Amino acid sequence: MKHIRNFSIIAHIDHGKSTLADRMLENTETVDKRHMRDQVLDSMELEQERGITIKMQPVRMAYTHEGQKYILNLIDTPGHIDFSYEVSRALKAVEGSLLLVDSTQGVQAQTFTTLGMARRFGLTIIPVLTKVDSPLARIDDTKLELAGLLNCDIDDIMEVSGKTGEGVDALLKNVIEKVPHPVELVSGSKSLRALVFDFEYSNHQGVIVYVRIIDGKVKKNDQLIFKVAGEKCITTEVGIFSPGKFPKDELVAGEIGYIVTGIKKPGIARVGDTLTLFKDQLDALSGYEEPRPVVWASLYPESQDDFDNLKSALGKLKLSDSSFSYEEESSGALGRGFRVGFLGMLHLEIISERLHREFDLQLIITSPSITYNIVRKTTGKKEIIYSPHLFPNDGETASIEEPWVNVRIITPREYLGTIAQLLYEHEAETSRTESFGDDRSEIDAVMPLRELMRGFFDTLKSASSGYASISYEIGEYRSADVVRLDILIADEPVVAFTRVVSRRRAQEEAEKAVEKLQEIMPRQQFVMKIQGKALGRILSSATIKAFRKDVTQHMYGGDITRKMKLREKQKKGKKKMESLGKSKVHIPHDVFLKMMRTGD
Fewer Cβ close by (within 10 Å): the C or N end of the chain? Predict the structure, then answer.
């Protein structure tokens, strides 16, 4: 155990975590140069496309320092605030963290959040400046910011370049010297306690759990039990990540690896559970805090025949991403589906895209919403509303409460005026604005979570030319002045597009939704009317023309009245089809996704 070092990389998004991990894998010869590619630890197709880390990934490296061989277990973590739960799980399994700060951007808002998590877990923190080879690097200024944040000496801050590999060897040596080696909690224990920090599901092998061995050891054919779930299993394989899965005879205390459990039913294993030998059953380790959903949306299959497929897909996806939650619900208009809780808008988009790509599901996705506490006038009882289409009509509530968030923004001073206007438009209340390092300012504010999810991230980036950064945490519930906005297509309300909006923005939101739908909805065989309804009346309306089939193309010559008669017959046929209810509007999968994305 004295020659093992377990550590993670934490940072704001796009500060070079995955690039630095690539260079570490190269320098330790964990991955052969001919097999190297960018973001080698980001195995998901979506991660490669977007250039971001969505799911944390452990990897084991071997490194020789002063003639002694060391095992370095690295966990690469996501940087986007939506995936901070992934970061918290990784930090529980390690003793140290590399805190990366981009020398071209300086300390960002999310840096505070990830640093706070690492400190709560009592980890050894090594400050690292990345992208020092860039001509835009502000090395001295950023070092001063970082030294002030950590209250450390400037000389303790490492300088590296993930692009050129500069400083990577020195950083690996620093990890060995500063990060403490793992220690068994039960000294000399011959039994087993393994902390589960992630999952994977294989159709052939069942549930594969990612574990940090705290006490004892585990080998193939051991009979184990999940202490929280109470489920027994027999290990069919144990091994390490390097970076693919490599089977081993056993995993011992201090190591990070995987255990193939053979369990095929979802919902048994969970993050934070403890695996022990069934014959000994040591006490469970303290687990993680449960993820708190921030955004809710309902998912329905386009065809009700796919309901069981959607249920199975969510169960399997839950094993690779335990930070979302779901439960079955039904709608008179859409049939059976699931109400799903997500950690943010990006998380919602990623899960929806994975369901479509990995399980070939065509989904109806309702407009994202948050939870509201309401009291009805008729009953006087307090209710929690998760879905917008269940929100009461205007005038039916005695009180409405919504969650607010505490927001921290770091921005160059030249954008303060623009951001102040932006905060006002999103109903925020600014509590503090202070100078922060080199010509930058820090803003602390509170705002409704509803407004934060209304495209605030993208708008902030646009208003600051990409230089501002933001982090947030959920605060208290406050009184809300909001109404339900229904979208009607062909005089029928579409439940998926219903949303809850600020009363003072109801007209604007109705016009925007109708205009957007008019642009992206494909034409049908009949004239289609789109309307936005709130406050008991129609606020906005638009029309999409019908396809016009040339029913006279087979005619040659003759009197024009022959063609006119056929066209009149076509008009009557379309009216009859509409009156018989055969004019049901088909809304493609991509329309729901585009309506969900604010920027499209």
Answer: C
CA distance 128 to 331: 51
pTM for this predicted structure: 0.76
**Superfamily designation of domain 192-277:** Translation factors (2.40.30.10)
Q: What is the pLDDT of residue 580?
A: 45
Q: How far apart are CA 533 and CA 518, in angstroms?
A: 15
Domain 483-596: give its CATH superfamily. Elongation factor 4, C-terminal domain (3.30.70.2570)
Q: Is 566 exposed, middle or buried (0-12, 13-18, 19+ CB in 10 A)?
A: middle
DSSP string, 107-141: S-HHHHHHHHHHHHTT-EEEEEEE-TTSTT--HHH
What homologous superfamily is domain 295-365 in, according to CATH? Elongation Factor G (Translational Gtpase), domain 3 (3.30.70.870)
Contact indicator for 95, 6 with CB cutoff of 8 Å: yes
* 360, two tokens: 């070939």
Q: Which residues of the chain have pLDDT under 70?
A: 33-55, 79-83, 85-86, 186-190, 266-267, 287-290, 332-333, 525-526, 547-560, 570, 573-584, 597-600
* β-pair type (256-260, 206-219): antiparallel
The mean predicted confidence, pLDDT, of the chain is 84
